[in-house]
Design goal:
Layout lengths: L2 H18 L4 E11 L6 E2 L2 E5 L2 E11 L4 E8 L3 E7 L3 E18 L6 E19 L8 E3 L2 E13 L4 E10 L2 E6 L3 E7 L3 E10 L1
Antiparallel strand pairs: 1-4, 1-14, 2-3, 3-6, 4-5, 5-7, 6-7, 7-8, 8-10, 9-12, 10-11, 11-14, 12-13
Amino acid sequence: MSRLVLTSLALAAAFAAAGANAQGFSVTLGYQNTDPKSDNGTLAGADASVNDDWSLTGSAAYAFNDNFSVELWSGLAKFKHEVSLDGLGTVASVEHRPTTLSLNYHFAPDSAVRPFVGIGYGWVNVSGEQTQGALTGLGINGSNDNGLSLAAGLDWFVNDKFFVRADVRKLSFETDVTVETLGNVGTAEVDPLVYGVSAGLRF
């Protein structure tokens, strides 16, 4: 099933549930960092390194009860990363937009501070690939990916409707890299942590 179909079904379910009980619906707007793991694999025989980036994110969630919710989270603007190779420096840049659909469990639902954990599935759409430095002028392509996602965080409720969220997500994300004239040069192993803060509204 495609990412678009899954996302559409999730949104339809969320809005249908929200219509039955609007108190269970919430949205967030955040500013978060995508921080790839330290070892990003080998490309064209050289050790690769992918830097981090900050961007806007957002989510929509529906709470089935005090403890369980389903959440659709996504980058609202793309994250952009530079790719460096050992001995060659920066050779490419790439953009991506991550999306996850998660089932979350919320602790202490009656408290002002409410921790939560989540597990779900994520999709990463890769775009805007460009070569730089030693590879300038060559076409480059990175594949999309999908896989398990994990989340943990806490919500601080200022009042019944408004809350501030701090959270971190672990995404499973690798991209197969193809360079013009060179063919497939390897797989960039990104597997980032995504962390930051958000403002939320429950209604």
